[in-house]
Specification:
7-stranded mixed sheet; Nucleoside Triphosphate Pyrophosphohydrolase; globular; 474 residues; alpha+beta
């Protein structure tokens, strides 16, 4: 049983939150080591911890099998995850009915990051973690990235290092603790505990872990595929920590800072109205997703080594054998979901009343627990849309009619997805872009977006990832 964190201190008030924001801002300005040194450290850990990933057919996925009655791909232990079938009907989007495989993982994983002041500056403990689906093997990851199947040692391997700081009450001060969803097209009802715990005691060092400031992490976000998805989602849930910027500065860094500090009087609409917009979309949209046996999923073919759609689009289910020298177990085999193409997520931003706003979308996905979450302006795999039904604003964000502020490839979660990479874009439009939006879009400031990440199932993982990338522009 996972007990809640308790602290012998009063509930934090405004002064405490403001003090934390100031400490986070100081950490975001502090860069004790250049990003090239951090990349060299990660490369050194990869050399010190060799790994091998090989493709295997389903018949050689030791510990996994297709259930005789349903055809679902399941683990012999009944734990970890399964690949099942889903039948979806909806009233929104270009397609109103489809079937697909989907990953079902009922375990609530811990995505935990330890924080500690070092020389008066808040640092965060990240690890060099290998995941079998990572496009480059090892990436900067949370202190702990572990499902109950792992930290309860279903695999009979070692216990996840430092997990006790997130399981045992009183180990430190909790800065973030919220259940968040994951990819709603690939997971059914998946949620993870995103948690940051600040400690004051010395932490036993380990060569695969490193203390980094927010500023250093922001620098890493400007390089492709270095900060993994799980670290991005946890850090995006931190409270706002911008520093006041010169109102006359027209640059994007100053605009991001001002938007992060803007109160409701300076916003296009108050936060309560943003929440009303999202709730209305949750209540007003219809999506019915039924679990079905994987063998009954239409338009998908199961071969010896992959499950794929007859069109060759969307994604495949494949098998991989893994050997790793620094994981809880030295070798294992598992299925992975392999996207067919590079994804794209984009925020369109515009200055309204002099304040930078993000154009958010009410994103409908079959795997969400609550049907709709606030998502990026655009979220898709462009190669999946070859006909007339192109996502709204996709052509805009890829055109020369916008000013590009951020354009970096970032990896999705490598423990379940094989070489899943998503292009992250932040593009700005001018005053000619209409302020009045379609009903499933709305304008929010970065302060409002940050406030909504404090609640479960409000902001999807793609928007949270982009939020952290926006902060990296300051």
């Amino acid at each position: 049983m996972v007990l809640p964190h308790t602290e012998a201190r009063p509930r934090p008030g405004h002064a405490d939150r403001d003090h934390l924001a100031a400490r986070l801002a100081r950490s975001a300005r502090h860069r004790p080591r250049p990003v090239a040194d951090l990349e060299a450290w990660l490369d050194a850990r990869a050399r010190a911890n060799p790994f091998e990933i090989t493709e295997v057919p389903f018949a050689e996925l030791t510990g996994w099998s297709f259930a005789p009655h349903s055809g679902d791909l399941v683990h012999d232990s009944g734990r970890f995850f399964s690949v099942e079938g889903l039948h979806v009907r909806t009233d929104g989007g270009p397609v109103d009915e489809w079937w697909q495989p989907i990953i079902h993982q009922p375990d609530r994983a811990i995505l935990g990051i330890l924080a500690r002041e070092i020389d008066g500056v808040l640092h965060f403990l990240l690890q060099a973690k290998m995941e079998p689906g990572n496009v480059n093997g090892i990436q900067f990851s949370p202190t702990v990235q572990s499902t109950p199947s792992n930290y309860l040692r279903t695999h009979r391997g070692a216990r996840s290092r430092y997990v006790e700081y997130f399981l045992e009450p009183g180990r430190g001060r909790v800065l973030v603790d919220v259940l968040q969803s994951e990819q709603g097209s690939w997971f059914r009802g998946k949620r993870n505990r995103n948690i940051v715990v600040e400690v004051t005691d010395d932490i036993e060092p380990h060569p695969d872990f490193v203390w980094l400031t927010l500023g250093q992490i922001h620098d890493l976000l400007h390089r492709p595929n270095l900060v993994n998805m799980d670290a991005r989602t946890v850090l995006s849930c931190l409270p706002g920590h911008a520093v006041a910027a010169d109102p006359a500065d027209p640059g994007i860094a100053a605009a991001v800072a001002r938007s992060s500090l803007a109160d409701d009087d300076a916003a296009w609409q108050p936060l309560l109205q943003v929440r009303n917009w999202l709730t209305a979309n949750k209540a007003g949209r219809t999506l019915v997703a039924h679990q079905v046996p994987l063998r009954q999923v239409r338009d998908w073919h199961r071969g010896d080594a992959e499950i794929r759609h007859r069109s060759g689009r969307f994604f495949r289910i494949v098998g991989r054998a893994v050997r790793a020298s620094n994981r809880e177990v030295a070798q294992w085999r598992q299925p992975l979901l392999a996207p067919c193409g590079t994804g794209l997520v984009a925020f369109v931003v515009r200055r309204l009343g002099g304040v930078l706003h993000v154009l958010a979308h009410a994103d409908l996905r079959p795997g969400y627990r609550d049907i709709v979450e606030l998502g990026p302006t655009v979220q898709c795999t462009p190669d999946n849309f070859t006909g007339a039904h192109r996502p709204t604003y996709l052509d805009l964000v890829c055109s020369d009619r916008v000013q590009v502020h951020y354009d970096v490839l970032q990896s999705e979660e490598g423990g379940r997805f094989h070489h899943a990479v998503t292009r992250h874009l932040v593009v700005e439009v001018g005053p000619e872009f209409p302020a009045v939006t379609p009903p499933d879009y709305t304008w929010v400031t970065l302060r409002q977006l940050t406030a909504m990440t404090a609640f479960s199932y409000q902001v999807n993982i793609e928007a949270r990832s982009l939020l952290l990338c926006l902060r990296a522009l300051t």
